[in-house]
Amino acid sequence: MTLRLYSDLAHLWPIISPPEEYMVEAQEWLDVIRGSLDAAPTDRESLPTLLELGCGGGHLLSHLTAHFITEAVDISPRMLEISRQLNPQTLHHLGDMRDVCLGHAFDVVAIHDAINYMTTEDDLRAAIATATVHLNPGGLLLLAPDCVQETFEGPRVVEWTKEAEDRSVTFIEYMGKPRPGSTTVESVFVFVIDEGGELRVEVDRHTGGLFPTETWLSLLEEAGLEAEYIQTNAYEGGFGGNLFVGRKPPLP
């Protein structure tokens, strides 16, 4: 099923979720990374390298490009184009986080909320395997799912309105109540677009993964990483605030 937010409705992404709203989370990530990697470099040429899998529109990435040599992967050509415009210094690749192979490794691999679209343990295992292959020894993997099973309560509704030069967009997300034993949760996205008093309504449906904390940690360990869960600040609507960190052992 085509997800409209990442295809014909991708142009709404910079309006409903603008880059400046990722500043706090990006700083939290920087603090975690700096606490694990070696001392800060002295010049641009010696910056650490970072790969973001599932970069979307590159909004979080835009706060990291000054601190890393960056590359990015996404499965949506339209979202990649948005990210290219925002992050022209970043090398972008079209690919699926479950099987993309770039042929070189990075000091940091990050998967933000795109990890939500891994809806089975096999999907999640594949994404973690891809990330691990792309990690240098001693490197760091960051995963940031919106929800974990133990703390999620559905149904939930969140909504907000954002203004652009020529329109306003009200975004409404309804997240259902997961079925017992399920590792997924379904969402309905509603976009109310007001263009000079002319209203248009668009609807999109998404399915996200919902796993217990132990599954995240055990799959990281299965991939040979030292696993840690860090609670961070949740964002609007109570989503986020989950950061799973995997450290690849250094060479002997």
Strand content: 25-35%
Please give the number of β-strands.
11
Query: How many whole angstroms does the radius of gyration measure?
Result: 18 Å
Separate helix tally: 5
Q: What does this molecule look like?
A:
This protein is of the alpha/beta class. The chain has helices spanning 13-16, 23-34, 77-86, 121-133, 213-222; strands at residues 49-53, 69-74, 91-94, 106-111, 135-143, 156-163, 168-175, 184-195, 198-209, 226-234, 240-247. Helix 3 links the parallel strand 2 and strand 3. Helix 4 (121-133) packs across helix 5 (213-222).
Topology:
Elements: H1 13-16, H2 23-34, E1 49-53, E2 69-74, H3 77-86, E3 91-94, E4 106-111, H4 121-133, E5 135-143, E6 156-163, E7 168-175, E8 184-195, E9 198-209, H5 213-222, E10 226-234, E11 240-247
Parallel strand pairs: 1-2, 1-4, 2-3, 4-5
Antiparallel strand pairs: 5-11, 6-7, 7-8, 8-9, 10-11
Helix pairs in contact: 4-5
Summarize, please.
This protein is α/β, with parallel strands linked by helices. The chain is built from five helices and eleven strands; from the N terminus they run H-H-E-E-H-E-E-H-E-E-E-E-E-H-E-E.
Which features characterize this protein?
252 residues; single chain; alpha/beta; 19% helix
